[in-house]
Each structure stands twice: as structure tokens, then as C-alpha cells.
Amino acid sequence: MSSSAAPESGDLPGVPSGEASADPCAGPSRDLWSVDEHLDDILAAVSPLEPIELQLPEAQGCVLVEDVTVPVALPPFDNSSMDGYAVRVADVAGATDEFPAVLTVIGDVAAGADGLPVVGPGQAARIMTGAPLPPGAEAVVPVEWTDGGTGEGAASGMRAASAAPEGAGGEVRVHRPAEARAHVRARGSDVQAGDLALEAGTVLGPPQIGLLAAIGRATVRVRPRPRVVVLSTGSELVQPGEELREGQIYDSNSFALAAAARDAGAIAYRVGAVTDDADTLRATIEDQLIRADLLVTTGGVSVGAYDVVKETLTADGRVDFRKLAMQPGKPQGFGTIGPEHTPLLALPGNPVSSYVSFELFVRPAIRALMGLEDLHRPRVRAVLKADRALSSPAGRRQFLRGTYDAESGTVTPVGGAGSHLIAALAHANALLVVPEEATGMEPGHELDVVLLG
User: Fold this and answer.
1) Distance CA 36, CA 284 (A)
2) Long-range contacts formed by 244-250: CB under 8 A, 24+ apart
């Protein structure tokens, strides 16, 4: 079976489940598993990856495993927040456009400068944003409050030092007074030495990477992003961009699931579709184990004669194939494979079944490997907005695609219940959850909604 629109024969009643596996993570053989039991079985077998030390660029998206304290204050010295002039407050008191304060410019203070000039009475130092406040200065007046040393009206900026070195000397007219510490960023005003910069469990995004760099950390101890290998099966599958022949379809599942794995925080490797041949599938999986913390297959898990994922992995004895009380996505497989006992999740082939299964089972497994506590998509309660009642099979938890409107607190179904309707999935931002005990849901009733945004 493939990852396309073929019906899931595993959804048919009366089909016996596989024999019990010797693998403890496979669980006991039974006719039907609940969604929660299957997820619990997966999470019980998935442990966070071992921490490693990474350079900052490689640590993005990883989870910090240690508290990081600040070794030096930020900023490490008083510095200017403006391009302008460092002055003494008394020297500019009462300054106006009509009666400006005239000060002697004693030099430049650029960012990174050392050997700072001392600002005495009646003096000013031209200062750049980020440059240290020189001794004697108490405030910074922006260049726009001055004539810029030109003897003319208000300046709009400074000329480049290389083009006008004379700007570092002469006189400057200041047209406005300044209070003490005006436009000065105080030492330690961001963080003080010894402060907690980031706590263990933080996911390192761009701001966190920037903070680590700012306090001088070149490396950090994290749990690495899981490496997830995604492969689809089906002899009818063709790669996008190639010519379709009769009976063939494009492989969409491997692209969607690899994108979903990246969205969950993993490093995803997409493998081209594997034909319906057990030996080829076994060899492909063995080749991929070297770069996998988690393997995800799609297709071939039902009861058809060409369901090679089930045929291959059942024979290997450590993957259990089971039926779940859910729609879509009744046939599922889970276990471990290879010498490192790498977790493998075998998902159905229909596009919607595959994606829903990923959100419910694979995404939490990826986040568990990352060491995160929050494993699941957010859920809200919303009012059903629909033209007619929804129907749902008894004893099955149904997941329907929908659009959630946070402002009105409503959710509207998108498309039908068919597990092949990928176009509707592309326009959904939520999954409507109809519980097992319900056989229908009337408009206006509240239900759980899984947010996909």
C-alpha cells in the first residue's frame, strides 16, 4: 500500500491484530487500542537524547540542560545610547536656541575606544552610540540638540570622522539642557554578574543565542535536535516534478511529514518512496539507521497483500501493528529497530491519516527526545459552527479538519471526513475532536480543538 488515497483496510471491523511481540515497548496484543494507550506506549519507550556541548550556531532549536549565569554585567560599562556629545550637566543648564551653551570639543569617543579623555568644565567630547561615557561627563546630548560644531543651525547628524576629522575639535553649541544620566545606559542595567541568564529547559531561539553570545558563551550544553528519517512506501509513488503514468500518484506524505518533523524541532531527512518490496524496504531502513534517532514510515500498515511495512517489520519481531479506536488513522505500528533500538512509528498511507497520526503520536515523541515537558499542541474549547450536525462512529475518537476563530471562539469543519482529502487539510488550522462516546455533534455545542498553527 502507498501513501495516497487508497482506503485503509485496517479500518474494517473483524480484522485480527498481530501476534504479541517480544519487545516490551510493543505492548500486549489486543483487538483495539485507545489513542491514549498508544501514545503512552510510545512515550514510555522514548527517552530524552543525551546532552552534548555545541557551538552557538549549532545550538539553535536545542533545549538547554543547564542553568546559565551571567559572568559579567551587561552592559559592562556606562555607555551612550545616542550619537552626540558627552557633557557636564551644569555646563548646559538653561541652554536654548537663542542662548546656546558653547563648549570646547576635546576629542572623539568611539565605540571600543580606550584612553578616554576627561571632560572638564566648559568641555564636551563627541561620542558615538555604544561608546563608554568618559570621566567627568554626566550626560549625553544628542547631536540633533546641537549645531554639530558647524556654527550653524540644528544638526541632523555627524559627518564621517574620516571625511571631517576637524569635528573632533573646535566648539559646539548646545541648544537644550540635559538631566544627569540622560541618554546613558548604565553598567548592569540589562543584567548583573551572577544573575540567571537562562534556565535549564529553555529552547534556544535567536534571542537566547544572542544573549549567550553577549555574555561571552561560545558553547552551551544542550540536548541535540532529534534526527528524524521519514520514508514513504508504494510502488505507485512518483517524486514531484516527474511525469505521472497511469496508476501513479505523487508522493506527498514524505514531504508533509518531513516538514512537520522540522516544525516540531527535529532535523528531518526525507527518503524517496520505497517500492512495495520487503527486501528493498529492509535494506533502506538499515541504511538509514545510522542517521536516525527516530524513524517514521508512511503506508503499508494495513491488511493488504502489498502492505510491506507490516510484512517486513512484523517479521523482524520488534514492531507491533495495532488497530486504534480513532478515525482517521486506525492502523498504526510502533516498536524499535536496529542494534540501538531506534524507535520506529509506522503511520497509515492516506494523507490525512498520516498527518493526523503525526500530530498525535510523532510530534510528542520528537519533543520527548528533545527533553521538553510540553509535548502536545495547545487545545482549547470551541463552539461548533456548521450547517448541520457532525456524525461520528461509535467507540472511535474522530479528528476532523477545521478552521478555528479565536475572536469568536468558534470552529468550522473544512472538507469531509475522507482520509484522502489533502486539499481540505491545507486550509485547516485545527483538528476538531469528537470523543469516543459521541456519535454526533450538533452545531452550537462545545468540543475540544487541537490548534495546528
Assistant:
1) 31
2) 249/2, 249/4, 249/5
Q: What is the DSSP letter of 53?
A: E
User: Smallest Cα–Cα separation from 400: which of 383, 421, 377?
Assistant: 421
Whole-angstrom Cα distance, residue 105 to residue 164?
14
CB 274 within 8 A of CB 280: yes
Tens place of pLDDT per residue across the chain (453 aa): 344 444 443 332 222 333 333 343 344 456 899 999 999 999 999 999 999 999 999 999 999 999 999 999 999 999 999 999 999 999 999 999 999 999 999 999 999 888 899 999 999 999 999 999 999 999 999 999 999 998 888 888 888 877 778 778 999 999 999 999 999 999 999 999 999 999 999 999 999 999 999 999 999 999 999 999 999 988 888 888 888 888 888 889 999 999 999 999 999 999 988 888 888 988 999 999 999 999 999 987 766 655 778 888 876 668 899 999 999 999 999 999 999 999 999 999 999 999 999 999 999 999 999 999 999 999 999 999 999 999 999 999 999 999 999 999 999 999 765 545 678 888 999 999 999 999 989 999 999 999 997
Is residue 453 within 8 Å of residue 411, measured between CB atoms? no
Cβ-Cβ contacts under 8 Å for 131 (sequence gap 6 or more): 79, 80, 109, 110, 111, 112, 113
Cell of 252: 506527498
Residue of 88, 68, 103 whose CA lies nearest to 140: 88
Q: Where are the beta strands (DSSP E) in 206-274?
A: 219-223, 227-233, 237-238, 249-250, 267-274
HEC string of 273-330 equals EECCCHHHHHHHHHHHHHHCCEEEEECCCCCCCCCHHHHHHHHHCCEEEEEECEECCC
Q: Where are the alpha helices (DSSP H) in 52-92?
A: 56-59, 89-92
Integer Cα distance of 237 and 244 in angstroms: 9
Dist CA 351 CA 357 (whole Å): 10
Q: At which residue does the C-alpha cell 488513522 appear?
A: 329
Residue whose C-alpha is closest to residue 35's, from 313, 332, 421? 332
Terminal-residue alpha carbon distance, the chain: 30
- Separation of alpha carbons 143 and 92, rounded Å: 14
